[in-house]
C-alpha cells in the first residue's frame, strides 16, 4: 500500500509528470536500450518503438496506476495489472528485469523534470513504482505457477503441421509439439507469443490468439501480413518448419458463468472470438451468444466462412456483420461502419471486444448507451501490440 504522504505527493505532482510523459519515455527508452541493446532486439517491439506506440503504453500504465492511488478504482486497477501481467508472462519477463526499468526510468524523470524532483517527490514516485512492480511480480508468479512453468521459462519449439490461407493477407498456422506429445491446454481467448530470427540477428516477438478449440493436442493461430514478425512468418514458415512459441496467456477469456455473451470484433481481431466459439460449439453451449464483426469487405475478411459456420451451430447464436465496401447479401449484413442502433442488446450480457482502438471505443460507448455495465465490457487490442 502507498503511504498517505506519498499519495499526497503523487496527487500534487501527477499533472507535471503526465505533461512530460512523452519526453520522459523517449529519454528512458534511449537510456535503457543504450545500456541493454539486447532488450530492443530480443524483447521489445522495435516497430512500436519507432512509431511511439509502445513507449506511451508503458508511460500511460504507470501514470494510470499513479492516478488510481489518488482516485481508487479497484476494478480498473485489476484490469490494468491483469493485462500487463499476462503480456509479461507471455514474453518470459522475470523479477530481475524490474530494477533495470527502475534505474533508467528514474534517471529519465530526474533529467526531464530537473529541480522539480525533490527528495520527497523522488521517494513518492519510487514507492509507486515498486508498489506496481511488486503487484506485477506477484501476479506473474501466479501465472507461471498456474501454467506449470518456471518463471520466464515459457518457450518451446513446435512444428508447423498445416498452413492455410484464411484471407488474402492472413495465414493460419497449426502447430504441434516436436516430440509428438499433446501441447498444453489453454483458456478460450488466450494467445501465444511467437519469436522469430530476423536477418539482422534480432529475435523479435509478437502475440497471436489461439483459434482452435481448447483441449486439442495442437495449437492454431492466424497471422495478418503486417510488421516484421508477421512478414517473416508469411515468407518463411511452412509445414515441417519449427517455431519458438510461448505458453498460452491472456485475459480476454470466456467468463466462468453461463450468462449471455456478446462477442464484437473487427478484422483480424476475430481470432480470439473464433477460439471462444469453437469451445462453445464443442461443449454444446446453449446460452444466447451475439457475434458482431466489422471488416473492410467480405473478400478480405479472415475466417469468414468459419465464423458463420460456428455461429450457426450454436442454438443461441446470432451473427451480425458490417462491411465498409460491398453490398448487403444477408438480412444480418450491413454496409458501413459498425452501428448497434437497431441491434437488440441484452444489458445482462458480458461483452468481449477485440479490434483497433477506434473500433473498441465506438463499441464500448454503444454498449454503455444500451445499459451494459462498463465492468462487463472487456477488451483486447489488435494492432500495435500484435
From TrEMBL:
Superkingdom per UniProt: Bacteria
Cofactor(s) needed for function: heme b
Domain FAD-binding FR-type: 153-255
Domain Globin, first and last residues per copy: 1-141
GO biological process: cellular response to nitrosative stress; nitric oxide catabolic process
A UniProt-annotated Pfam family: FAD_binding_6
Keyword NADP: yes
Assigned EC number: 1.14.12.17
Reaction(s) catalysed by this chain's protein: 2 nitric oxide + NADPH + 2 O2 = 2 nitrate + NADP(+) + H(+); 2 nitric oxide + NADH + 2 O2 = 2 nitrate + NAD(+) + H(+)
Gene Ontology molecular functions: 2 iron, 2 sulfur cluster binding; FAD binding; heme binding; metal ion binding; nitric oxide dioxygenase NAD(P)H activity; oxygen binding; oxygen carrier activity
Record keywords: 2Fe-2S, Heme, Iron, Iron-sulfur, Metal-binding, NAD, NADP, Oxygen transport, Transport
Stated family: Belongs to the globin family.
Protein name: nitric oxide dioxygenase
Organism of this sequence: Gordonia malaquae NBRC 108250
Amino acid at each position: 500500500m502507498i503511504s498517505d504522504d506519498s499519495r499526497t505527493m503523487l496527487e500534487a505532482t501527477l499533472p507535471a509528470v503526465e505533461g512530460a510523459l512523452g519526453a520522459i519515455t523517449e529519454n528512458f527508452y534511449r537510456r535503457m536500450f543504450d545500456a541493454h541493446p539486447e532488450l530492443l532486439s530480443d524483447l521489445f517491439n522495435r516497430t512500436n518503438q519507432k512509431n511511439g506506440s509502445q513507449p506511451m503504453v508503458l508511460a500511460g500504465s504507470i501514470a494510470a496506476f499513479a492516478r488510481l492511488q489518488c482516485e481508487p478504482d479497484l476494478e480498473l486497477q485489476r484490469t490494468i495489472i491483469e493485462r500487463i501481467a499476462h503480456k509479461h508472462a507471455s514474453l518470459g519477463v522475470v523479477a530481475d528485469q524490474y530494477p533495470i526499468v527502475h534505474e533508467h526510468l528514474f534517471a529519465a524523470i530526474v533529467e526531464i523534470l530537473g529541480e522539480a524532483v525533490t527528495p520527497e517527490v523522488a521517494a513518492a514516485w519510487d514507492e509507486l513504482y515498486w508498489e506496481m512492480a511488486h503487484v506485477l511480480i506477484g501476479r506473474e508468479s501466479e501465472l507461471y505457477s498456474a501454467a506449470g512453468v518456471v518463471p520466464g521459462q515459457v518457450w518451446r519449439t513446435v512444428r508447423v503441421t498445416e498452413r492455410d490461407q484464411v484471407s488474402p493477407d492472413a495465414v493460419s498456422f497449426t502447430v504441434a509439439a516436436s516430440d509428438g506429445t499433446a501441447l498444453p491446454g489453454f483458456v478460450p481467448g488466450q494467445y501465444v507469443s511467437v519469436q522469430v530470427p530476423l536477418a539482422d540477428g534480432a529475435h523479435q516477438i509478437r502475440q497471436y490468439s489461439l483459434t482452435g478449440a481448447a483441449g486439442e493436442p495442437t495449437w492454431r493461430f492466424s497471422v495478418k501480413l503486417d510488421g516484421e514478425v508477421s512478414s517473416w512468418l508469411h515468407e518463411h514458415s511452412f509445414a515441417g518448419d519449427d517455431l519458438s512459441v510461448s505458453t498460452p496467456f491472456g485475459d480476454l477469456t470466456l467468463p466462468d458463468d453461463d450468462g449471455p455473451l456478446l462477442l464484437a470484433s473487427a478484422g483480424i481481431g476475430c481470432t480470439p472470438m473464433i477460439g471462444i466459439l469453437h469451445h462453445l460449439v464443442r461443449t454444446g453451449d446453449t446460452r444466447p451468444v451475439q457475434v458482431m464483426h466489422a471488416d473492410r469487405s467480405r473478400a478480405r475478411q479472415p475466417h469468414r466462412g468459419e465464423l458463420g459456420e460456428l455461429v450457426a451451430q450454436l442454438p443461441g447464436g446470432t451473427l451480425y456483420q458490417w462491411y465498409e465496401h460491398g453490398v448487403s447479401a444477408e438480412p444480418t449484413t450491413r454496409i458501413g461502419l459498425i452501428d448497434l442502433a437497431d441491434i437488440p442488446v441484452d444489458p445482462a450480457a458480458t461483452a468481449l471486444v477485440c479490434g483497433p482502438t477506434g473500433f473498441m471505443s465506438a463499441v464500448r460507448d454503444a454498449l454503455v448507451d444500451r445499459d451494459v455495465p462498463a465492468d462487463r465490457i472487456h477488451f483486447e487490442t489488435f494492432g500495435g501490440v500484435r
